[in-house]
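Final report, closing paragraph on structural work. Over the funding period we assembled a curated collection of sequence-structure pairs, and we close with a single example.
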Amino acid sequence: MIRSARSGSFTLSASALSLILGVFLAPLARGNDYGPFPPSESVHRVSLHRLPVEERILDREAMTDRYRFIGSAAEGVFLEISYKEGEAGEGWYAGITAEGRVALAETYYSPGPLIAGGWAYSADLNRNDVQDYVIYTWLGGCGLAAHNTHVTFLLSSGGGYRPVTVTTKMLDFEPFIWVEGRPAFIHTGFGGVSADRDGKPRNFWIFNLLVFEGDRLEIRNDLHPNFPRVVWYSYAPNYEETDKITAEQREELLRKVQNEIRSQI
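Its predicted structure, as stored:
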């Protein structure tokens, strides 16, 4: 059931919001023809299950939004996310109950705007036979900023869950892949140099591979030869490692992005 809390409020389904964002932002983003894999390369993607919404209540006047997702009807698991003013400030909070037991107490995970919720998925990411959860929160913006997204992983451990939120840029490819028999996540960063080998300023997409170890994430670029990959933002489709910069410049771009990832995981 999806309803408004007041007559002056409106209700917008996640699918409708996704369509609206795609129509209006895709022409501005100019980042959908890039990635660590060319279209011709076969990649085994992880299948995530999109969670059905049992109830949504959006109140524009009070600036609150709440989704109740069905994690597993058979096991009585529910994921609830809310945008509100909470103990950690205004933003998005998540909580999980399992058969009436609190598996994750309400936890702040993103300051993303009010309209940014509504995308939640499940998969056994850390291979412990318990479903983990993934929440996408669009951070808003135009141009390249339209790709800015918080991806929150609710990783199962010891009967509970640990939330981990990373900031990434979502391009037009599924970021979850299988690598050596385990799920992994492709993190997308962005950076630039003031002068490349030819003395020209250039920008680059920066791809790193993250894997799930229990309730934590680790950078594991050693698991696949395509990582890490630095791809020139060439205003044309491009998937190849760049030769426009020096080895030192490449290492500096990677260092900045990887340090940001490590600060979040």
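Residues 4-29 have pLDDT under 50 and may be disordered. Residues 247-264 form the longest helix (18 residues). We thank the funder for supporting this effort.
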